[in-house]
Amino acid sequence: MSHYVVRGGQALRGTIPISGAKNSVLPILAATLLNGGRNVLHNCPDLRDVRWAMAILEHLGCKVSREGDTVTVDSTVVDRWDVPHELMREMRSSVIFLGPILARCGRARLSLPGGCDIGQRPIDLHLSALRRLGADIRQQGGDIFCEARDLQGRDIILSFPSVGATENAMLTAVACGGATRVINAAREPEIADLQEFLRKAGASVSGGGESVITVSGEMPRRDVEHTILPDRIETATFLCAAAACGGEVTLTGTEPEHVGTVIQCLREAGCAIGCAGRTITIQAEGRLTAMPTVRTMPYPGFPTDAQAPLMAAACTGAGNTLFIETIFENRFRHANELARMGADIRISGRTALVCGGTLHGARVRSCDLRGGAALVVAALAAQGESIVEDIFHIDRGYERLAEKITALGGNIQRIGT
Ligand code: EPZ
Predict the structure, then answer these.
(1) How far is it between the farthest Cα atoms of the chain?
(2) pLDDT tens by residue, 378-402
(3) 355 is known as an active-site residue
(4) Tell me, what DSSP letter sits at residue 92?
(5) What pLDDT is recorded for position 373?
(6) Which of 19, 327, 393 to mutate to test the pocket of ligand 1 (most atoms within 8 A of CB)?
(7) Structure confidence at residue 88 (pLDDT)
(8) Residue from 22, 116, 128, 162 to probe ligand 1 pocket by mutation (most atoms less than 8 Å from CB)
(9) Which of 146, 199, 218, 362 could pair with 340 in a Cys bridge, judged by C-beta atoms 3.0 to 4.6 Å apart?
(10) Residue 82, Cβ neighbours under 10 Å: how many?
């Protein structure tokens, strides 16, 4: 197993580029099944989860290749309609393939994704949305069997603005006769990026980024060339690292408006943050002060994926900060590892009170993707040496992390493959 060796206490200074968004490229890769043609995707990050999604597309019959940050998918031939357990197990978000396989093949079989490190991760909203559109869905053993008897556009009301359920509904609705409205849709920027991709493929989709999305039943048929939007959670993570370590960091090729709530928190904690076009510059001198209560919410609220990195930064501050995690039921697992570095975090259910102080190096273990990133942020700010283990979790969502940190003057080494 690989690990990082981090020697903390250095300020971070310099400029780094932000990669394409993991949570945009995954649904868009699934959507490449729909047009039965050629799809050229630029700004695709080279991540574990992206490689698994590419493997699923190849399993289904597509021709998939990568050249630098451009991934090409030719979905002319799709001769399978199942995603086997060994592929689903590696990436539970593969459930996003359910809608497009059903839309393209008229049937789909997926192994149930199951829970993960941060929570039970049910898919009831996905299944009820597809049933609403006319899909016949049975569960047998650990598999879901779907058949599109007579897909018909209808109003779908989501009881929660689930990102994945919104995406699956959109990707199935294009194969339905008539119009579909997804009401109480997720408003994350990745939804608007998916809409942009579908429009380029010839589908009629509107409302992406708002609470009601309308899809008229037109299967995408055109070849597509699309550039994936920047990763707002990678952006947030590097902002938190600069805030925790001090220094001056510029992030290029990003979208400041997608991280507005994170910028607000860090400004209130004493950081100077300037935004110009697709660039953000953060200056942090001295210790952070207390932040306002951080309550994770669906977009445009504070992103749950930035909660762990921001908590790591708050641990280094002079004040106390209250975190309320409203999205996932088990997303404070990094707190115990941060405590090994001297953090004072008091957890009660979905709230965590962080009493700022100083951190010292320790041997810690990543429990999940964003929790692992938080440990790297903390290790960079801590006095002394840290070992961050199980970094395969981090590889799922951060491209060239050690390389980018080194470019900012951070002292980090990857040991192992
Ligand atoms: C997406 O997950 C992201 N993943 C997550 O990022 C992100 O944390 C999450 O959205 C929220 O923003 C991808 O886009 C690949 P949800 P998703 O459906 O779609 C409940 C990361 O670190 N729910 O919006 O699975 C669910 O239990 C990952 O990059 C149901 O109850 O999130 C959770 O409490 C982690 N039934 C809440 O909704 C359902 O059918 C939010 O889930 C679906 C979800």
Answers:
(1) 63
(2) 999 999 999 999 999 999 999 999 9
(3) no
(4) G
(5) 98
(6) 327
(7) 84
(8) 162
(9) 362
(10) 19
User: Is the distance from the beta carbon of residue 125 to the nearest atom of ligand 1 less than 6 Å?
Assistant: yes
Two tokens at 163? 């990102």
| Token pair in block for residue 75 | 């979905």
416 contacts 1 by C-beta, under 8 angstroms: yes
- Count of Cβ atoms closer than 10 Å to residue 289 Cβ: 14
Q: Answer whether 163 contacts ligand 1 (Cβ < 6 A).
A: yes
**Nearest atom within ligand 1 for CA of residue 26:** 15
What is the predicted pLDDT for the residue at 114? Answer: 66
Q: CA-CA distance, 187 to 195, in Å (whole number)? A: 11
Task: Check residue 119 and report its DSSP letter.
Answer: B
Query: Averaged in consecutive runs of 10 residues, what is the pLDDT profile of the chain (417 residues)?
Result: 95 98 98 98 96 96 98 98 88 91 96 77 94 94 90 97 98 94 98 98 97 94 97 98 98 98 98 98 95 97 98 96 96 97 97 97 96 98 98 96 98 95
Catalytic residue among 44, 62, 105, 116: 116
Q: Which domains does the chain have, with CATH numbers?
A: 3-19+231-415 (3.65.10.10), 22-227 (3.65.10.10)
pLDDT tens for each residue of 306-326: 999 999 999 999 999 999 999
Q: Is the CB of 308 under 6 A from ligand 1?
A: no
